[in-house]
Specification:
Length: 216
Amino acid sequence: MSQFSKDTPAEQTGKTPFIKQAEFVLSAPKISFCPDDKLPEFCLAGRSNVGKSSIVNALTNQNKLAKTSNVPGKTREMNYFRMNNSWYLVDLPGYGYAKVSKKEQTRWSKAMTEYLVKREELRLVLIILDIRHKPHDSDLEFMYWLADNGIPFANVFNKKDKIGKTQAQEALAALYRLHQEINIEVPVVSISAEKKDGLNELETLFADFMDESEAG
């Protein structure tokens, strides 16, 4: 089992880490392979290469808990990480990766749809977006689909360290305008997984969608 070391930044400042314990549990190709212990789940979704695995590592203060790659489309199953022995963070396969075969895309789509619609333990979908770019059509389609199916979600801008403060503010303003245009209101968080900046806002989201007894 992986745990925070004694010299984590949070402990140096006297703050108790939100995630005190983390471990990889399993990779599930479809919902029937998911854990059956009824713990609440939060999933990371988004286009390939937006930094989902890096976010897992940043949140847990570990560099290799989730495997990262510069090659898009490497995550091909639902990767389950158990946090504080009380809830799961689930890294979903990235969408919008054209070089995957049609057969594999169909399998992913069917498995993800079943998981998102039927998984009772799912509390919130975190759609990860690269703040340097406008949301892709596949991002917008996914937001529409989640809204239509009544599945709670939030937008998380990653890589804010790659642009200036003014550009970041403009990207946030544009996303809020987009939300108004499509008549949705969801939480928006801006972070940098690489610099571990803004993670406290992400942790607040987790806490907001869990009962106090579930956070561990």
